[in-house]
Amino acid sequence: MFVVVKPQNEKGDERMAEKRFVEVYSQGATNVEKIIVDTETGVNYLLAASTLTPGCGMSILVDQNGKPIVTPVK
């Protein structure tokens, strides 16, 4: 999966993401789990929330070796 960011602006400034974080996966209605990708680093995060209780939790997703899961970004 690739996350697309905007090309350089008219002034030639560095490429900037249209949005810093993008949602790439979501499931659930009451208990919601989402995967969020940082468009600058490609790091994947899991966001979990429930409509039945206040608050939510967010954590870096890691592979079987404990290294962060990174999505290639363009």
Rg estimate, integer Å: 15 Å
β-strand amount: 35-45%
Q: Which stretches are poorly predicted, pLDDT < 50 over at least 5 residues?
A: 5-9
Helix share bin: under 10%
User: Could you give the order of the helices and strands?
Assistant: EEEE
Structural class: mainly beta
In whole angstroms, how far apart are the ends? Answer: 10 Å
Strand order of the largest sheet: 1-2-3-4
Question: Biggest sheet, in brief?
Answer: 4 strands, antiparallel
Total DSSP helices: 0
Number of strands: 4
Compute the average pLDDT. 84
The global form is: globular
Task: Please summarize what this structure is.
This protein is 0% helix and 36% strand.
Written description of the protein model:
The chain has 74 residues and is mainly beta. It has a domain at 21-60. The chain contains no helices and 4 strands. Strands 1-2-3-4 form a 4-stranded antiparallel sheet, with no helix packed on it.
